[in-house]
Specification:
Oligomer: heterodimer
CATH architecture of chain A: Roll
CATH architecture of chain B: Alpha-Beta Complex
Strand content of chain B: 35-45%
Largest sheet of chain A: 5 strands, mixed
Largest sheet of chain B: 4 strands, mixed
Structural class of chain A: alpha+beta
Order of helices and strands of chain A: EHEHEEE
CATH topology of chain A: Ubiquitin-like (UB roll)
Structural class of chain B: alpha+beta
Number of strands of chain A: 5
Number of domains of chain B: 1
Number of helices of chain B: 3
Number of strands of chain B: 8
Number of domains of chain A: 1
Distance between the termini of chain B: 34 Å
CATH superfamily of chain B: Molybdopterin biosynthesis MoaE subunit
Helix content of chain B: 25-40%
Distance between the termini of chain A: 40 Å
Chain lengths: ~80, ~140
């Protein structure tokens, strides 16, 4: 088990009800982490991306493949499609 | 490699005149300056109370720096500035400023469009429209 800081933004932040949290995880990639978080509570099912695409960033690098390794990561962020400009 | 790139992700407003004066000091060889300003607009079928812009500040800044560096590689530019605001904004408040400057207009125009297109869907900002009747997160159109 390793400790990692999770950050949530926009609709995901609202659904989960917090901006960030420190959690102990055993997952080694994004997909497994989402499954692991879902076991912590129904609110985390928003990360499955049924209503909108869910993006993630590992140590502030945006990743598109849910199989991307999170080993050694200290911060993982989850957010919906970006709407800047 | 262009070294006159200024990027900011900020709550405060920006001033177009002072940005122009800063630019002039740095771009004596440039004859073209393109300003793009994105501002808050009212809704078609509801009255906007305010627009809340959320950002992942550190990542947004690094993503913008990256796209500016890409633009500097693609076009011969003398200066690039991108300032993007976050927080609670009212109708007509400024949201984003993109300034590109080059010797002649073509490069500045094209680079401005390139940077703005990227900002719309690749930089971590999210907009929530809070209006009289409804409130909703903006989706990309």
């Amino acid at each position: 088990m390793v400790k990692v800081k999770l950050k949530y933004f926009s609709r995901i932040r609202e659904t989960i009800g917090k901006t960030s949290e420190l959690v102990e995880i055993k997952s080694t990639n994004i997909q497994d982490l989402i499954e692991e978080l879902q076991a912590m509570g129904e609110q985390y099912s928003v990360l499955k991306g049924r209503d909108f695409a869910v993006f993630s960033a590992i140590d502030q690098n945006i990743v598109t493949d849910v199989k991307t390794s999170i080993e050694g990561a200290t911060e993982i962020a989850f957010f919906p499609p970006m709407t800047g400009g | 490699m262009l070294n006159k790139i200024i990027v900011a992700v900020q709550k405060s407003d920006f001033d177009l005149n002072s940005e122009m004066e800063t630019l002039k000091l740095k771009t004596e060889k440039a004859g073209a300056v393109v300003f793009f300003v994105g501002k808050v607009r009212d809704l078609e079928d509801d009255k906007l109370k305010y627009l809340e812009i959320e950002s992942f500040e550190e990542l947004a800044k690094s993503q913008i720096k990256e796209i500016c560096a890409d633009a500097a590689n693609k076009w011969d530019l003398e200066f690039i500035l991108v300032k993007h605001r976050f927080g609670r904004l009212k109708i007509n408040d400024n949201i984003v400023l993109v300034i590109t400057s080059s010797k002649h207009r073509k490069n500045a125009y094209e680079a401005s469009k390139f940077i703005m297109e990227y900002l719309k869907s690749n930089v971590p900002f999210w907009k929530k429209e809070v209006a009289d009747k409804t409130q909703k997160w903006v989706e990309n159109s």
